[in-house]
Amino acid sequence: DIQLTQSPPFLSASLGDRITISCRASQDIRRYLAWYQQKPGKAPKLLIHSASTLQNAVPARFSGSGSGTEFTLTINSLQPEDLGTYYCQQLNSYPRTFGQGTRLEIK
Amino acid sequence: EVQLVQSGAEVKRPGATLKISCKTSGYTFIDQYIHWVRQAPGKGLEWMGLVDPENGDTIYARKLQVRLTLTADTSTNTAYMYLNRLNTDDTAIYYCATGPDWFDAWGQGTQVTVSS
Fold first, then answer.
1. Do A82 and A106 meet the contact criterion of CB atoms below 8 Å apart?
2. How far is A46 from chain B (nearest CA, A)?
3. For A10-19, what is the mean pLDDT?
4. Which of the residues in chain B have pLDDT under 50?
5. Between the CA atoms of A7, A82, B110 and B6, what dihedral angle is there, to the nearest 10 degrees?
6. Touching check for A96 and chain B: CB below 8 Å?
7. Between A and B, how many residue pairs show a Cβ–Cβ distance under 8 A?
8. Could you read off the pLDDT of A32-86 as tens digits, one per residue?
């Protein structure tokens, strides 16, 4: 199974900040990576697929990059509604594993 | 608009069997796999498996494959998840999800509590 390691596990940032979350895969997954945002008590929401393609209606302050084993989610100009937990997921092979999550707190 | 609506919360005894439904609308049911994902209290997302509604083919996570059954009813555009021999570690929120490959539509989640 492909393992995904996210870092950091917890992030506290201020409004307007630029933050980055890393996701490292245990083997080459090309660009078969998605990012999700989960707010407390809600189902996850797709933000980005294919490593860098922004899902419809997702604000442009979100962006993704990377390929192979190293990926990054960036949020520019952090907004209050961005709090939550962020997960990466690999779509290269089964089982469709997720990273362990990065919890984002707004200071 | 793609919608996935799941059945309601469940409380089960250890050893029982769980059944959750996921009724879909807004797209062609047979065109996309239905995946199931669960989340234990305070924990991350765990992919459980998928069913292909077109032919009933399934893929299961190795740790669950002996207890998990996924089905799809094309007459009602509804997917079902059965998990037997429940134990307290199965206490979680269970989600169905679908999409072209990534999961761009999710059910609202079903809270399942396993307790004696």
1. yes
2. 6
3. 97
4. none
5. -120
6. yes
7. 55
8. 999 999 999 999 999 999 999 999 999 999 999 999 999 999 999 999 999 999 9
Q: Which string of DSSP letters, residue by residue, matches A8-38?
A: -SEEEE-TT--EEEEEEESS--TT-EEEEEE
Chain A: residue whose CA lies nearest to B98: A46
Q: What one-character DSSP code corresponds to residue A80?
A: G
Q: Say if CB A103 and CB A9 are below 8 A apart.
A: yes
Question: A55 — contact with chain B (CB < 8 Å)?
Answer: yes
E strands present in chain B = 3-6, 10-12, 18-25, 34-39, 46-51, 58-60, 68-73, 78-83, 92-98, 105-106, 110-114
Among A38, A49, A94, beta carbon nearest to B102 = A49
